[in-house]
Fold these 2 entries.
Entry 1:
Amino acid sequence: MHAALGALSGLVAGYAALAMAELVSVAVRPEASPVTAVGGAAIDQTPAGVKDWAIRNFGTNDKLILQLGVLSVLALFAIVLGVLAPRFRKGASAGVLGFGIVGALAATGRPDSTGVIDAIPSVVGALVATMVLYVLAGLLTAPGQSVPPRSPGSAVDRRSFVVGIAGVAAASTGIGALGLRLNAAGVKEAAASRATVKLPAPASPAPQLPRGVDLKLPGLSPFTTANRDFYRVDTALTVPRVDVGSWKLRLHGKGVSRPLTLGFQDLLRRPLFERHITMTCVSNEVGGSYVGTARWLGVRLADLLREAGVRAPSRGGPADQLVARSVDGMTIGTPVETVMDGRDALLAVGMNGEPLPLEHGFPVRMLVPGLYGYVSACKWIQDIELTTFDAYDAYWVKRDWAAKAPIKTESRIDTPKPFATLKAGPVVVAGVAWAQHKGVDRVEVRVDGGDWHQAELAAEGPVDTWRQWWWQWPAKPGTHTLEVRATDRTGYTQTDARTRPIPNGASGWHSVVVTVT
Ligand SMILES: Nc1nc2c(c(=O)[nH]1)N[C@H]1C(S)=C(S)[C@@H](COP(=O)(O)O)O[C@H]1N2
Ligand SMILES: [Mo]
């Protein structure tokens, strides 16, 4: 009985701590709230293999799962401390303060931390929890006794315990709800700042897509991915909120003879380019969904670099790596040579005719056709530094992913779906293939390891986009395995050598098993 009451007071104390920390984080920084900070630190410390596994199994829910994990660990310790508190009040208080220190260290150690001030939510939360636990434990200990009696304390104490615990729980709910609401208002402000943005017409509009790039077949991914359907991969537990009015981008470093600092309007005053580009995440499994195509609007990064006096390494420039930094502390390293080789590497401000959505990097992100996102597509960008690959390892490179990672030529079967049951007769097999900045030349399909059949290709879009394909399969009853492979314009054909995403992208043929009746 006592253990249960102790556990309950531990949980309520922990709850009070988180609620108070959330409210205090409104004044400090929403990202400094302990669960977010500890979760963020956990993401940074997670070995690449585990992160890869989490993305694979939880997809975009990986963040929610992580936060639930942090909360469960916290709840477990709160229970233990709560049970111990009536006997060891000082020890339990020290334990709670220890938790505060963990939160504080996590918050101040985040790459986007603004200093010791980020420790305040965790410290205040821990102090509140210590107080709550101390008082509740006192009520569980009958007067004059230093250890809990066999039966719960006197009727008076029991009533004060119930009133106390209910009061703390109610107050914490109010405080926590207020904190969450005020923090959510911050998102609204960023959204409002986004709503004020009017994107100018592009100086160089996207080339008209040829008729027939989009076969519009049922079950096939559309050629252009809608913003709401576009995959999202990042380490941000709370979406960074950036105010366009005060946003600045600094361009500096090795071989930069004229460092630049640009505001958002400075970017909009420059000639804007609009281009269809297919993005891919290195964590995409064969057949996975972390790939999408949008019509991006932005400034050509190479033009900015040239204006700053940067020369490509092949022209004697001293820097071979461009390191982009985001407001949330992500670092992404890209070869300067690739950015300046004539492709449409962009500092993007628009996505499918809108300002960038907050989740996709508002107000400005980078984009380099042909390179995986983690080596090219910095969202919420605020700084570009020219350096060398020898001198600096970016975030994922420190975690064992390759420093350079061009996107591998891949193909995917979108329809039929895995384990679908189909009727015998003609079946449309269709999907997409991508070989950004090379182009897709051929796609082939085979059934049950038989001969390869050449698929029909949709009209060819710009060289940095994927290509749809389809093949009519005379399906006969039975269980069948469909496989696909693509050949790009360099003449390379995908091989069946299966590799995992780490260190530089998955490879192998996508296969789908279906049953025909
Ligand atoms: N600031 C920031 N930028 C980032 C990331 C990140 O975690 N933080 N993830 C990168 C990765 S791994 C990919 S694949 C792309 C994904 O962009 P999207 O979420 O707009 O699809 O963003 C890149 N840019
Ligand atoms: Mo990625």
Entry 2:
Amino acid sequence: MASPDTLKIPAELLPRDGRFGAGPSKVRTEQLTALLADGTTYMGTSHRQATVKNKVKEVQDGLRALFNLPDGYEVLLGNGGSTCFWDAATFHLVLNHSQHLVFGEFSSKFAEAVTQAPHLSDPQVIKSDVGTHPLAVTTDGVDLYALTHNETSTGVMMPITRPAGSKGLVVVDATSAAGGLMVDPSQFDVYYFAPQKSFAADGGLWLAICSPAAIERIEQISASGRWTPAFFDLKIALDNSRLNQTYNTPALATIHMLASQVKWFNDNGGLSFSAGRSRTSAEILYTWAEASSFATPFVTNPAERSNVVGTIDFTDDIDASVIAKVLRANGIVDTDPYRKLGRNQLRISMFPAIDSEDVAALCASINWIVGNL
Ligand SMILES: *Cc1c(COP(=O)(O)O)cnc(C)c1O
């Protein structure tokens, strides 16, 4: 048996770009070039002045166009990434009782934050096995439904629809989905995400598209006098976002790269373009795995297989971690599975920045490794 350390994948099989991590995503060279071009006039300047504020506005207006937002929807942003937004939502979106669909690591976190919160009642948690997703159940007394558009840890996507006849806000973790999956804004009240996944920028920021009902909820909790640490106060975030600012200093490069990606999506046809790129990549990946004698898609229901993050199981005679190691030694990085899932698996991101031809090349490279181990 060949030693994994010395296996050299033939150059003609290799993807042109070897970044397949589920976050941070591959950043396109054009985004980096654009940042460099604006380097001395944008980087290192005040986030309270027009240069940066106009860039924030460009992001907000660009997202409005990308998601075709109805009147009254607003784009909020703040520091701390999606993880911070769970705490902000715990303080400032749940009135008293929330329902959470839990089907993997990320979707469990918001439920956990609410469970720990002394000012809220215990949430209603609806779970399903990893590799599947549960459905929301319209329930009296639930004032917030917490959905996850794409569960990044397992590679499961779910459609975003309002639970029939529900009165609660529909609050969607779209961290890895936004920009890479289609969505109808009339079906959510809050669609929150971070820029380091489908938007191919860097981490550390959260963005939340809010419906008029969500903004009303923010105003209502603010007026109620509930104590909220300023960092998690969505009224402060709302007021700052309306001025194209964040409460405290943001990472300027993140905003610039995000603006470039949103513009690239919009210039090429919008969400159908960006989500279409991910869909094409996903077709390539799952078609390959289904035809393979040693690989299978982990998610059994084809409709639930994510277009942005693919999880592929390997037969017992092949050690997926060895494949990931050989890939890494050949410049193809971050295909390792989600740590806590503990499966003999590779996880391959197919965010819009990733070229579908590179996904095909990755499949060919894996075939070559298995044939030469
Ligand atoms: C990556 C991810 C998060 C965490 O995002 P951070 O910006 O790192 O806090 C949350 N939810 C989902 C679905 C994710 O994919």
